[in-house]
Amino acid sequence: xxxxxxxxxxxxxxxxxEKIFVMDEERASTQDIRPLNILIxxxxxxxxxxxxxxxxxxxxSPLQVNITFLxxxxxxxxxVSKSHLEQFYKTYSSVKNYYxxxxxxxxxxxxxxxxxxxxxxxxxxxxxxxxxxxxxxxMHICWGAQAALYHHYGIGKFELPCxxxxxxxxxxxxxxxxxxxxxxxxYFAPHSRYTSVSRKEILEHPNLLLLSEGEAGPFIIIxxxxxxxxxxxxLEYDTDTLAxxxxxxxxxxxxxxxxENYFPNDNAxxxxxxxxxxxxxxxxxxxxxxxxxxxxxxxQDRKVKVDVPAPEEHK
Length: 315
Fold this sequence. Notes:
It is a single chain. This protein has a single domain (3-157, 196-238, 277-314), classed as Rossmann fold, CATH 3.40.50.880. Strand 4 (65-70), helix 4 (82-88) and strand 5 (89-90) form a beta-alpha-beta unit. Strands 1, 2, 3, 4, 5, 6, 7, 8, 9, 10, 11 and 12 form a twelve-stranded mixed β-sheet that branches. Helix 1 crosses helix 3 (47-58). It is built from ten helices and twelve strands. It is of the alpha/beta class. The two termini are 33 Å apart. Transfers an acetyl group from acetyl-CoA to L-homoserine, forming acetyl-L-homoserine. It is found in: Cytoplasm.
């Protein structure tokens, strides 16, 4: 089944070219189906790229999915137009009275800051608290995962000697957990971050399960009540995302190492090979099925789709 996004959203054209089933609200309203309402808090600077990456994965499911994008009210985004945010995004104050089946909180390139020094940290903590009784299941990605571990479970982050960037091998600690159903015993995933979290603190926490780990440290952490899923890497990344980040950092003059296990023959002139695509789709489809669809109540009185205003309503 399709994902439901506005007709004018730029990501729509990209997804349709990839033959991903995208539906607009007019057509979706004619189907007698209870769709899943998913909220995405997009903290990444290049929001349109992240939109495509996440929508591609959420669209690979037999479920109909309504998407609402959220941006921070207390932060001015520099890499996306104001009109794009006004047309396709909501703010916390406009959704706080609604209930959602699932939510994704993305990463953000701000690991060098203490959590309390992030200019939207107070707003983010309000949102994370709100999810406890307004969202069935929340997936947190990279810095979003570190923020969740800190806020919900008191586990901080620590700085790495150098940036963790590349494609790393991972294993599963418990194959019986539904989130990794169908995963290979060894699989690969991209990481891109300057900080990490303590394996020891996760293992010792009574409310957490370290589900998967590998060469880059703890990778998938899940709360034992299955409310929160923390993914410290970027399974949603495109094949060339790490290459783009590497080139960007070089242009900034940063002392940066080439992403590990990424470019063939460690030659930045060669095209990287995607070794994580199937597990990306599997993770998101398992999350949607087992942690959102199977767990969310059917009643729609508390599960209302937040309509994104049409462009003319902003005129």
